[in-house]
């Protein structure tokens, strides 16, 4: 089967970094480019992180485009309290030597989609949806070229992870979520309900440590750093692999189970802004709820250790 052609839209972020490594390690996926978005940490840090991660993986052939600097309407909200000052604390990487592309990330998304055959390209946003919303609002014709948008974000019945309201990516740019929901693009969503079943625990870390390559050292260091926040907050033993779930789904969809439902995002109540919820007025979305956790973690360890 031909590899699935994807663009990863990301705000690295330790779990974003692990999603990038998973995509690079997977023959089922052709990672065409990376677009960055302000999220876990501001621009230009997210862009520098993406470049540094590609460098340690020896994949500077993947172009990186710098995207949005801030959410559409809301003030910027970042998560150094989870990810550290760099966004990828624990990675232990030197600053990148490569530069991002000149073209803005939103223009790249539009150009890449328009030049692709109908329904051929998969967009994988694993951060706030700002770039995807800007691209869809600027050139709605891209919808016809998109096979699927697979987004890590939102929470349906799961515990919120940001400001007691919702999930970080939807909290940061709820207006972008609304634009994407209303665009008519085929959307698959990985909310906290499912990503909280993807925990990289001590056994998996021990397995990774045995490989002792530059990439596995980076994976272990980041996971150790990033585990602390959710361990304290949710009582997990390990680090939550939110963003890698999106890539794992493209590699092997049988790892997850979900259902079609209508989803909306709260835009009116200032105390609940960004909360995603089931609503008959919402857009139809495929929402994932269950993960085969053991097989998922095995996939992560196998692929990361192959880089
Ligand atoms: C999401 O927010 C970020 O902290 C992570 O990178 C992930 O994309 C989880 O809520
Ligand atoms: Ca992310």
What this model shows, in words?
The structure is a single chain. The protein is an alpha/beta fold and 307 residues long. The protein has a single domain (4-304), classed as Ribonucleoside hydrolase-like (Inosine-uridine Nucleoside N-ribohydrolase, Chain A, Alpha-Beta Complex), CATH 3.90.245. It is 37% helix and 20% strand. The protein has helices at 14-24, 45-56, 80-83, 105-114, 130-138, 168-172, 174-182, 192-195, 202-209, 214-234, 244-251, 293-305, and strands at 4-10, 29-36, 64-66, 121-125, 146-152, 187-190, 199-200, 239-240, 256-265, 276-278, 283-291. The strands form 2 sheets. Strands 3-2-1-4-5-6-11-9-10 form a 9-stranded mixed β-sheet, with helices on both faces. α1 crosses α10 and α9 (202-209) packs parallel to α12 (293-305). It is globular. The model has no long low-confidence stretch (mean pLDDT 96). Bound molecules: beta-D-ribofuranose and calcium ion.
